[in-house]
Specification:
Elements lengths: L1 H16 L4 H14 L23 H4 L2 H4 L15 H10 L1 H6 L8 H11 L1 H36 L1
Subcellular location: Membrane
Membrane topology: Multi-pass membrane protein
Pfam families: Tetraspanin (PF00335)
Length: about 160
């Protein structure tokens, strides 16, 4: 169930937010570069993204974009060590050409993100528990402070 949530949120982020929301765009670029991945399940996810058609019509509505592979992928999908000109040429020419030339990553980011989460699940659990403990302690201290202020007002009268 958690894997499905991760996949849908990554796919939604690609389709609707990439290129529009600057923070999410930069964050997803970092994810793609660091995890060596492209798209939620693969480079073909970019065919449906607003990144290719900012007016809101996806390449799938045209009908041939995904079949021919003529959609663009971001430069963060390019493999490390490639020259910038080679990366720009292949990623703008078409993703099938880029995959065949092995200039972009072919793995999806959702599965790679789940691998990282599984690898560090105890750390994530410890962080969640620390945040929960901090919240509970803050509530206790605020109640103590509230009661102390009420007692002070009681003695003044």
């Amino acid at each position: 169930k958690f894997m499905e949530v991760v996949e849908t949120s990554v796919a939604r982020s690609i389709q609707h937010d990439y290129g529009i929301n600057e923070v999410k765009t930069k964050a997803f670029d970092v994810v793609q570069r660091e995890l060596h991945c492209c798209g939620a399940q693969g480079p073909s996810d970019w065919a449906e993204a607003r990144y290719n058609n900012p007016d809101g019509k996806g390449a799938l509505e045209v009908g041939v974009g995904k079949i021919l592979g003529t959609y663009k992928v971001p430069d963060s999908c390019c493999r490390e060590g490639l020259s910038e000109s080679l990366c720009d040429t292949t990623r703008n020419f078409g993703s099938i050409v880029a995959v065949l030339a092995q200039t972009i990553y072919t793995d999806g980011c959702a599965s790679k993100m789940m691998t990282v989460i599984r690898k560090h699940d105890y750390v994530a659990l410890a962080v969640v528990l620390a945040i929960l403990l901090t919240e509970v302690m803050a509530m206790v201290f605020s109640m103590v402070l509230c009661c102390a202020v009420r007692r002070i007002d009681h003695f003044k009268a």
